[in-house]
Amino acid sequence: MPWIISYITSTKERVLFNSDTLSRIVSFLPSLDLPSLALTCKRFGLPEEGELSLRDEALFRQPPPKEDCPICELRMPTLKLGSVYMACYGKLVCNGCLYAPLYDNRGNQVDSNKCPFCRTPWHASNDEFIERMNKREEAGDAEAMFNLGCYYRDGTLGLSQDYTKALELSHRAGKLGHANAYNNIGASYSNGEGVEVDKGKAVQYYKQAAMKGDAMARYNLGLLEESEGNTNRALKHYLIAARSGFSDSLKNIQQLYKSGQATKEEYTKALRLYQTYLDEIKSDQRDQAAAANDKYRYY
């Protein structure tokens, strides 16, 4: 029989939650709330295995895909090379649309040195680009915060390397729902960049990133589980990452299959999931861009 816990609201109303209800609640909770949920469950006598199954249900759920390209309306590639953030209006555009020629409303080709969406001219220098990014960041744009965090972390585009500033921006972007930002924070704790090395915190941030849809964080969790001998859990992470377009996960499942640690059915499923992803992102326009320049490669 499914367990049931009760909660007394501020109005003294008793509310009952069974396991199915709580599972649905978990799916809508920010991952930062999961420790609080765990404490609540313990307070009301929830069995430990039930608590873990709830957390695993949230962790191993396939996340929704990222936003589609605002121009071609196809699924955005997972590979970072597959899209570019346009600081002029604050959106990611796929490289197929970035590479494609621009036309006016009469069908005449026009100057392509402009944003394909809003027609703003390209920035003339790194300084101008950073100025645009700062404006987007000040406006509360999570993608701008994330990108600026990467530039400060790497010391690129004329910015001095500053791990503290990078972490601050990543935390702000993460709180606004940016999955990749949480992955970057996890990597900072894993590598000791701006913070003391803390593998436990790294895993927690990787989990937050994975549940929000970051395929690299999902892959990192798979590597960690595999290194600890938890092959079944590693496979679950790798399968989700493969469906999300992370090809290295497919390679790892192939190696597990060759070593007898994964079944033929599991490897076949991984191939099918990754092919489904490719079918969703491929287009002639993107292929043309990738053929013209390797910087437009998208898978």
Topology readout:
Elements: E1 4-8, E2 14-18, H1 19-28, H2 34-43, H3 48-59, E3 83-86, E4 91-94, H4 95-99, E5 102-103, E6 109-110, H5 126-138, H6 142-154, H7 163-175, H8 179-191, H9 199-211, H10 215-227, H11 231-243, H12 247-258, H13 264-281, H14 284-292
Antiparallel strand pairs: 1-2, 3-4, 5-6
Helix pairs in contact: 1-3, 5-6, 6-7, 7-8, 8-9, 9-10, 10-11, 11-12, 11-13, 12-13
Care to describe what's here?
- The chain is built from 14 helices and six strands.
- It has helices spanning 19-28, 34-43, 48-59, 95-99, 126-138, 142-154, 163-175, 179-191, 199-211, 215-227, 231-243, 247-258, 264-281, 284-292, and strands spanning 4-8, 14-18, 83-86, 91-94, 102-103, 109-110.
- By secondary structure, it is mainly alpha-helical.
- A two-stranded antiparallel sheet has the order 1-2. Strands 3-4 form a two-stranded antiparallel sheet.
- The protein has four domains: 4-59, no CATH class; 64-122, no CATH class; 129-213, Alpha Horseshoe (Serine Threonine Protein Phosphatase 5, Tetratricopeptide repeat), CATH 1.25.40.10; 215-283, Serine Threonine Protein Phosphatase 5, Tetratricopeptide repeat, CATH 1.25.40.
